[in-house]
Amino acid sequence: MKARTMRRILNAWPPFLFTGIRVVALDDYRYAKVRLKLTWYNRNYVRTHFGGSLFAMTDPFWMIMTLKSLGNEYIVWDQAGEIRFVAPGREDVYAEFRIEESVLDELRAATANGEKCLRWFDTDIRTASGELVATVRKQLYVRRKKPKP
């Protein structure tokens, strides 16, 4: 599936559509930019971004981008995730994801013998002016599929 098609699907996906999350860019599965709009329906009690929405805006990207970049010979799953809130989000926020070829080479080397690899990916969530709102860490499980006999 082309990245452009995936972007459209993600933007229509109810967990994103109904929480104000929009995939602004998804370029060749190597770069993505996501926006979370602050609206009345995704604010918390103190009128800042709901933490679950902040985490959700980052949820599928490292897994999808890694899987699509490595190819169908690999199994890629989310293994763990954590979020650290730094400042209250009182305006629209953005997250950017970029997967470098060196990271893909590292994963290929680590899984060449069929071993699993657990790797952490970090994402900052920032306002348009660059203020850090939260940091999210996602751990991926990556393994090369066993060859079919």
UniProtKB/TrEMBL annotation:
<protein>
    <submittedName>
        <fullName>DUF4442 domain-containing protein</fullName>
    </submittedName>
</protein>
<dbReference type="InterPro" id="IPR029069">
    <property type="entry name" value="HotDog_dom_sf"/>
</dbReference>
<dbReference type="InterPro" id="IPR027961">
    <property type="entry name" value="DUF4442"/>
</dbReference>
<dbReference type="Pfam" id="PF14539">
    <property type="entry name" value="DUF4442"/>
</dbReference>
